[in-house]
Amino acid sequence: MDLEPPVDQVSNGTIGFDLTCTLCGYNLRTLASDSDCPECGQKVSVSIRGDYLKHSDPLWLARLQIGVGLASLALFLICADYVLSFLCYALSIYTPARALAYTGYSISALYDIALWLATTPESATQRIERGFEVRKLIRVAIVGDILLQLMVAGIFGIRMMGLPYIGSIVTGALIAFTFFRYLRTIALRVPAQRIYRDLSLVMYGLSFSILLRYLSPLLVSLSPTTTPRRASDKPDLAMTLPLCAYILFAIYGIVLLRRLSRTLAPISLESRDNWHKRPENAV
Fold this sequence. Notes:
Layout: E1 10-11, E2 14-15, H1 44-49, H2 58-90, H3 94-118, H4 134-153, H5 163-188, H6 193-222, H7 237-277
Antiparallel strand pairs: 1-2
Helix pairs in contact: 2-3, 2-7, 4-5, 5-6, 6-7
C-alpha cells in the first residue's frame, strides 16, 4: 500500500499529478497544496505528505504508544488471572478464587484505560474522521461493557445475571475484535506489513475464543441431557479448551503489542522532528 505520493511533482504550490485524498478518495489534481479537499474538507497537505505516523502529532503518538504498552501489560495480567482462577477451581481451592475474581475487576479497569488511551482521537487538523469509525466503536463498547459488568456485580443494588452477563461477554469479544482491527490501521501507517498480517490472526482468534470460553459451558449446562454441575466437579473440556485457545491467542497478542510498541518508539522521535520542522501554515 503506497501511502506517500511523489511530493517532487508539486510545482508552484499546485498539484500537477493525480493525487487522491487519503480520506474520501477525491482527485486533488490542480488544487493548491495549502487548500482543503472540496469533498471532505481535509487539508490537501495531509494527502501530499502521506498518511505515515511519522507525520502525526507527537503528543497523540505518545498516548498511542502508552496505550499499546499498557494494553500488553493488562492482557498479560488477564491471562495470569484466568490461569490462577482455573487452577484454584480445578484444585477445589475456592477462597483464593474469590479473591482473584475481585482482582479481575481491577485488571479490567486497567485494560479499559489502556484502550481508551490508545484510541485517543487525532487532531481534526491532522486527520478528519468520517462516519462512525472503529475507534469510536471501541469506546462505545468499553462504556457498555463497564455498565454491564457493574450490573452483574450488583453495584446498582440489584445483582443481575442473564442478559447483562451474556451482554458483557459479547461486548468483551467486540472490544477485542475492534481493538486489534484498529491496530491494523496503525500498523499500515508505520508501515509494518508483517505486524498487520499477524494482528488479523489475533483479531479473529481472540474474539472467538472469548465467546467460546464463556458461552460453551453455558450451552452445555442448558442441554437437557447434561447432568447439573456441582461445586466439587472438576473442569471439563467445555471449559478447558476455550481457555487454552484464549491463552494462546492472548500470548501472541501480547507479543504483537510489545513489538508494535517498540516500533512506535523511534517513529515518535521522528514525528517530533517533523512536527517542529513543518512550516507555520502546514498542518
